[in-house]
Design a protein that fits this description.
Elements: E1 2-6, H1 10-21, E2 25-29, H2 33-41, E3 45-46, H3 50-56, E4 62-65, H4 71-83, E5 89-92, H5 98-110, E6 114-121, H6 126-129, E7 132-136, H7 139-152, E8 160-164, H8 168-196, H9 204-211, H10 220-231, H11 247-258, H12 263-275, H13 281-294
Length: 302
C-alpha cells in the first residue's frame, strides 16, 4: 500500500522505515532536507515539497502527518485541504487536542476528504516494538488504511483499534498520556523513598531489575527505569526539571469539565510544574508564615 508521510522526526522516520520493511511504498517529505535524504536512503520516495508529495501519490491518496501539535499541524492540514481531492484520507498521528481533531474532521468532510485522528504511542522504540494506535474517524477510512495500521502495530492482531468517531483517537491518547504521568510519578516517588533510606544502602538499579520479573508493578516504564538507574545509579547527570507535552493538562482540564476526579494524574502534573521552579515563591511564603506566627527558624539567602 502507498502512503505519504509528512514529518520525518525520530518517530516519523521510524514509522516510515517500519512501513517500508512491511512492504509498503512510502513517499516522504520534511522541511529538513537531510531527514528526507535519510528516508530516501532507506527506500522511501523523497518529495521536495508537500505539492510534490501529493503529485507522487496514486488516487485515492493517503497522507500521514507527523509534525508537532498546534500551529505546525494546523498549517500542514490547511495546505493539504487545498491540494487533496474527494476520497483522499488525511491522518494526524501527532498529539493534537481532540477538540481540534473534531473541528478539522468537519472541515475536511465538507471537501469530501476523510480525516483520521490517530493517537500514536511507542516513542523511539516503535520501529523495533511496534506502535499502539488509537484511531478515531470514519470506519470506512479506517478499514481502507487498516493494512498500514497492522504493519505499524506490534502484531497484525493487536495494538491498534478503531475506537470511535472523529476526535476519539486523540481523546483516548490524551487519557493514555495522563495515566502515564501518574505511573511515572509513582515510580519516581517510590524510588526516591528508597534512596532516602541510606542505612540500607539499597541498590536501586538492582531493585528495579528484580521488580521487572513476577512483580505486580512490572511494566515497560519500569524496564526503562531499570535501564536509567543502571546507566547512572544516582542520576547525577540530570537536572530535576520535567517538561510536560500538554496532554496531561488537557486530561486534567477535561476532568474538571466532566466533574470526574483525577487526583493522581492532577498531582503528577503539578509535580512537573514544581520541578521547574528554583526557590519557589509559595515555599518561601510558607517559611515566612511559620516564622511570623510561631517564631520558627528560617534559612536565609546569603
Amino acid at each position: 500500500m502507498q502512503l505519504g508521510i509528512i514529518g520525518l522526526g525520530r518517530m516519523g522516520s521510524n514509522m516510515a522505515e517500519r512501513l517500508l520493511l512491511g512492504g509498503h511504498e512510502v513517499v516522504a517529505f520534511d522541511m529538513d532536507a537531510e531527514a528526507a535524504a535519510m528516508a530516501s536512503s532507506r527506500g522511501a520516495v523523497a518529495a521536495a515539497s508537500v505539492e510534490s508529495l501529493i503529485s507522487k501519490l496514486h488516487t485515492p491518496r493517503a497522507v500521514w502527518v507527523m509534525v508537532p501539535s498546534g500551529s505546525p499541524t494546523e498549517d500542514i492540514l490547511k495546505t493539504l485541504g487545498s491540494l487533496l481531492s474527494t476520497g483522499d484520507v488525511v491522518i494526524d498521528g501527532g498529539n493534537s487536542n481532540y477538540e481540534d481533531s473534531i473541528r478539522r474532521a468537519a472541515g475536511f468532510k465538507v471537501r469530501g476528504i476523510h480525516f483520521l485522528d490517530v493517537g500514536t504511542s511507542g516513542g523511539i522504540w516503535g520501529l523495533k516494538e511496534g506502535y499502539c494506535l488509537m484511531v478515531g474517524g470514519e470506519k470506512e477510512a479506517f478499514l481502507r488504511l487498516e493494512p498500514v495500521f497492522k504493519t505499524l502495530a506490534p502484531a497484525p492482531d493487536r495494538g491498534y483499534a478503531h475506537v470511535g468517531p472523529s476526535g476519539a483517537g486523540h481523546f483516548v491518547k490524551m487519557v493514555h498520556n495522563g495515566i502515564e504521568y501518574g505511573l511515572m510519578q509513582a515510580y519516581a516517588e517510590g524510588f526516591e523513598l528508597m534512596d532516602a533510606k541510606k542505612e540500607f544502602g539499597l541498590d536501586l538499579g538492582q531493585i528495579a531489575g528484580v521488580w521487572r520479573h513476577g512483580s505486580v508493578v512490572r511494566s515497560w516504564l519500569l524496564d526503562l527505569a531499570a535501564s536509567s538507574l543502571q546507566d547512572d545509579p544516582k542520576l547525577d547527570s540530570l537536572k530535576a526539571y520535567v517538561e510536560d507535552s500538554g496532554e496531561g493538562r488537557w486530561t486534567v482540564q477535561e476532568s474538571v469539565k466532566l466533574g470526574v476526579p483525577l487526583p493522581v494524574i492532577t498531582l503528577a502534573l503539578q509535580a512537573r510544574f514544581r520541578s521547574r521552579q528554583e526557590q519557589p515563591f509559595g515555599a518561601r511564603l510558607l517559611a515566612a508564615l511559620r516564622n511570623k506566627f510561631g517564631g520558627h527558624e528560617v534559612k536565609m539567602n546569603r
